[in-house]
Structure formats: structure tokens, C-alpha cells
């Protein structure tokens, strides 16, 4: 049977999906399932790796069944994932040593503070492009090695394997205990705080500093790899042997899916968090403004392409909080309706620093606040302020990105689940003062993973063919005055000040 689709396995913070893309870049089938969010202590966030693998296998089977396709119709498989979430498992049994520590988790704040005593939070930035923060995988892995009984000895024996979620899925997809590939790609490796951005290899000095055995770490490969990571197993969820040759962290995958192949092109993804990336080409642009210098992607043997990134921890997760914790809505789709029940935020601002503040502040001592509360405030104002929080945080990041790169954006390409919220998109355009453009196909993260795999096997010829798939669906133009924009920004900055220093070390 002639190959008709490329499969993308998209494992996110709250759910797992499988999408099948045809040659025109259209999703012909999709299946999605949520998994549990585990909160053992304040500031701790965990996932069950075995549940994630089980749900991933289910969504693969579901997507294949919906499309009525066999494995012979699938040209290649690409994986994209929540990036810094950390898993450690036994090479021989395939069992995790415990729950995965999610990227939002703040339990490593003591480790981070200790590392920062010498050289501050930018101690490792010259090599890694990253500040010292609880966000990244390296400190999480150190915590596991220190706290899980027997894990360090197992790691030193070579029995314990580490990976972000991509590595865990790739290992299981390609055979698991029966010879599964222990690999990652350059984008995921660049989120560990363990990679030297120049050599694109694990840095031995940092490994020694964090007391991490190198034998635990996966091999680092290009994001689109013609040499393949491995192949799916006949008894696995795809039901046949298919090349697995694409692996891209979720936000870099969205950059690919948005067709941002040229220097200066940028996208913002509104998912659990908000993630704004700008392509900086072959240059590793340092950021004095608190952004991350990261790997954007690597296609085969070509040099790696880099990006500047601003990461916001809480965006769509704030809508979940309104639904699950406060009970203000019964579904995420109701938030826009509730927010439209009022004309504005009523003078209140909500800063969702639930896991501290990420870019450009990097303050783990911050915690969330609602300020400007009066008896006038209703749940409609809270809903509106919750949506506005994502736009305010994006505005901070974009301002920093333009300063660091010297590039003034003329438009912002957007994707992710929240871009269906038209009130948010209009407020974002108002706040930025530039048009916000939503593509016709918004599944850009999954599409990026498919592109990486498809390029490796020649399903798509090159980046020019991928660019041709991108089409605008809707654009929002700024509507407010410069003075009103400045007033809103000043109000946000005043609210952010109130979050700082809440956690005392």
C-alpha cells in the first residue's frame, strides 16, 4: 500500500493525541485523551508515565481506526511532547522509578538556590542559554537521584534511564525492554540545562556539578533524522513496522508547523502555558532581558537552527483552574461567554504566578494574586481578567524579544487551544499594537512533528513545500489608542510587583 499519511504523536501537559496528516498538511484523523494531573504537595505537579504511555497507545489506535488505515499507509512517525517533564525508568523492567516531575513543578527551588549561590541564576547561561530555574529537567533529575531510594546506585550500574517525555515514548514505541531506542533530539536536550548549545552534546562539567551519571542520558539526534531513531513494533499500537524519525519539543514543533523557517519569524502558542519563539537562524542570540536561547530544530546533517523563547507557565491552565478549582465554569469553552458578560475587567488584574514567574522575570518566589478587588467584581470580571493575563504575559515576553533581537515584529502568528477565543485574540492585538494572525490549520504543534518525520523520509520535499501549506484563517487588528495601551500595561506591571517575594526561603 502506498504511504498516504504521516503520523504525529503529540503528548502534552494535559492530554495525548495522535493526528494523521496527508500530503497537503491536513489532518485526516485525530484521537485525543486526557490524563491525570497529580498534586502531592503545594507547588508539586506530577504525571504517571505508565498512564501517559497507555493513553498514547490508545490514541494511536483510535486515530488509525477512525481513518480505517493500516500501518502500510503511514510513511513515518514523529513525536512532539511537553518538554522539561522528567521521567526515570528501569532499563530491564521498563517500570518508572516514580511519577514524572512536570515542567511546572517547583520542588527543586532549594537545588536551584544552592546552584545560584555561586554565579547567580545566569551561572550556566553562557553554555546552555538558560537561567537556573525549577523549570528545567536537570535539577529535577538531581532531585530524583537524591530522593528516590536506590536510584543513584541503579543509575551508576547503567540500569536507570532518564528522558523527557519524548524519550520515554520513543523508547516504548521502538521496542521498550526489547531493544527500544534511548534517544532524544536537540530541541528536547536543550531544555535540560545539561546541553552545551555550541557542541550540541551533554556537558561533562554540568553533569559533575549536578551529580548526574552520563550513562543515564539518551543519545542526541537531529529533530528530523533520515538515519531513524528506530521503527515501531508489529505488536505495538501502530500494528506494523514504521520509521520513527521525527522528534521535536512541542513549542519548537509549533514553530515548524507555523512555517517560521526564516530569521525573525515568530509564533506564540496558547496552551497550558504560553510560549513565544522567534527564529534566529544559525546565531545563538544571548538575552539580557531574561529570555531563553534554545535550539529551534535540526534537519538531518544540516547545522542546528536556534531561537529566542519566552516561556509563560500559566495560560490555559488558568482556565482549567477556573473550571476545576473554583467551579466558575463547567467547560473551558464557557469562559469566553462569561468574560463577555462584562465590558472590561472592572479594575481588577489577575497574575497567575502559581509556579512563580517565568520569562522575563524568573522569580520562583512569586505567587499568584488578584488585585483591585471591590464589591463591584463578579465572576465575569474574574473570567475576563483570566483571559487578559495570557495576553499581558505575552506582551511582556514580546517586548523583551524585540529588544534582544533588534527585530520589530509586524504580525504575530498564533496557535494552540486558546486561539479559538476571539475575545482573547482581540485583546492581544490591542495590547501589542500589531495584527494577530490565526492560521487555517491550528494544529501546528502536531503538524511540526509530522513535518520533521515527513522530511526525513521524503514525504515532503523541503521547507518551501511546507511553507505552501500555511494559510491565514483570521486576523485581528489593534483597536485601542496608544494611551489606553500604556495605561493597561502600567496596571499589569503594578500587579506583578505585588506577586514578588511571597515565598520566603
Summarize the structure in words.
By secondary structure, the chain is α+β, with helices and mostly antiparallel strands. It contains 16 helices and 23 strands. The longest helix is centred in the C-terminal third of the chain and has 27 residues, at 379-405.
Provide the descriptors you would attach to this structure in a database record.
alpha+beta; 7-stranded mixed β-sheet; 6-stranded mixed β-sheet; globular
Question: What is the secondary structure topology, with strand pairs?
Answer:
Elements: E1 5-11, E2 15-21, E3 27-34, E4 46-47, H1 49-67, E5 74-81, E6 86-90, E7 100-101, H2 109-116, H3 125-128, H4 137-147, H5 151-157, E8 160-164, H6 165-173, E9 183-185, H7 186-189, E10 195-196, E11 201-202, H8 204-210, E12 219-221, E13 230-231, E14 243-249, H9 250-257, E15 266-270, E16 274-281, E17 292-297, E18 305-312, H10 316-324, H11 334-339, E19 349-351, E20 369-371, H12 379-405, E21 412-415, H13 422-432, E22 436-439, H14 444-457, H15 463-467, E23 472-476, H16 482-499
Parallel strand pairs: 1-5, 5-14, 9-12, 15-21, 21-22
Antiparallel strand pairs: 1-2, 2-3, 4-7, 6-8, 10-11, 13-14, 15-16, 16-18, 17-18, 19-20, 22-23
Amino acid at each position: 500500500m502506498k504511504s498516504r499519511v504521516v503520523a504525529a504523536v503529540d503528548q502534552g501537559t494535559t492530554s495525548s493525541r495522535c493526528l494523521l496528516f496527508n500530503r497537503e498538511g491536513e489532518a485526516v484523523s485525530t484521537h485525543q485523551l486526557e490524563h491525570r494531573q497529580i498534586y502531592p504537595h503545594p507547588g508539586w505537579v506530577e504525571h504517571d508515565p505508565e498512564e501517559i504511555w497507555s493513553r498514547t497507545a490508545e490514541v494511536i489506535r483510535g486515530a488509525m481506526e477512525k481513518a480505517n488505515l493500516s500501518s502500510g499507509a503511514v510513511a513515518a512517525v514523529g513525536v512532539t511532547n511537553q518538554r522539561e517533564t522528567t521521567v526515570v525508568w528501569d532499563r530491564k523492567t521498563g517500570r518508572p522509578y516514580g511519577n514524572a516531575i512536570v515542567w511546572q513543578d517547583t520542588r527543586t527551588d532549594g537545588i536551584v538556590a544552592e546552584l545560584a549561590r555561586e554565579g547567580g541564576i545566569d551561572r550556566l547561561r553562557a553554555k546552555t542559554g538558560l537561567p537556573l530555574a525549577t523549570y528545567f529537567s536537570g535539577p529535577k533529575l538531581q532531585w530524583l537521584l537524591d530522593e528516590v531510594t536506590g536510584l543513584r546506585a541503579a543509575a551508576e550500574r547503567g540500569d536507570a534511564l532518564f528522558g523527557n517525555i519524548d524519550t520515554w515514548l520513543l523508547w516504548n514505541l521502538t521496542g521498550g525492554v526489547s531493544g527500544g531506542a534511548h534517544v532524544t533530539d536537540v530541541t528536547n536536550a536543550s531544555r535540560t540545562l545539561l546541553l552545551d548549545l555550541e557542541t550540541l552534546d551533554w556537558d561533562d562539567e554540568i553533569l559533575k556539578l549536578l551529580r548526574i551519571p552520563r550513562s543515564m542520558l539518551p543519545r542526541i539526534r537531529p529533530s528530523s533524522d533520515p538515519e531513524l531513531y528506530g521503527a515501531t513494533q508489529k505488536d505495538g499500537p501502530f500494528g506494523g513496522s514504521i520509521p520513527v524519525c521525527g522528534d521535536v519539543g512541542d513549542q519548537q514543533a509549533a514553530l515548524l508547523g507555523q512555517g517560521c523557517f526564516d530569521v525573525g519569524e515568530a509564533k506564540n502558542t496558547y496552551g497550558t502555558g504560553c510560549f513565544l519563539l522567534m527564529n534566529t537562524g544559525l546565531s545563538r542570540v544571548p538575552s539580557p532581558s531574561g529570555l531563553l536561547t534554545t535550539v529551534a530544530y535540526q534537519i538531518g546533517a544540516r547545522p542546528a537552527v536556534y531561537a529566542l523563547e519566552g516561556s509563560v507557565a500559566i495560560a490555559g491552565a488558568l482556565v482549567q483552574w477556573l473550571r476545576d478549582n473554583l467551579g466558575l465554569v463547567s467547560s473551558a469553552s464557557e469562559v469566553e461567554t462569561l468574560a463577555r458578560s462584562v465590558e472590561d475587567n472592572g479594575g481588577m488584574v489577575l497574575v497567575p504566578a502559581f509556579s512563580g514567574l517565568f520569562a522575563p522575570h524568573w522569580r520562583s518566589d512569586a505567587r499568584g494574586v488578584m488585585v483591585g478587588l471591590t464589591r463591584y467584581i463578579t465572576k465575569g470580571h474574574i473570567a475576563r481578567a483570566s483571559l487578559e493575563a495570557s495576553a499581558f504575559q505575552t506582551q511582556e515576553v514580546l517586548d523583551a524579544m524585540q529588544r534582544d533581537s533588534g527585530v520589530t515584529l509586524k504580525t504575530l502568528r498564533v496557535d494552540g487551544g486558546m486561539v479559538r477565543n476571539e475575545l482573547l485574540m482581540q485583546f492581544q492585538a490591542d495590547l501589542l499594537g500589531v495584527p494577530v494572525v490565526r492560521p487555517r490549520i491550528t494544529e501546528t504543534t502536531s503538524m511540526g512533528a509530522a513535518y520533521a518525520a515527513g522530511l526525513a523520509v521524503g514525504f515532503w520535499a523541503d521547507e518551501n513545500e511546507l511553507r505552501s501549506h500555511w494559510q491565514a484563517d483570521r486576523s485581528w487588528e489593534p483597536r485601542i489608542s496608544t494611551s489606553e495601551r500604556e495605561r493597561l500595561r502600567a496596571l499589569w506591571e503594578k500587579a506583578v510587583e505585588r506577586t514578588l517575594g511571597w515565598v520566603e526561603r
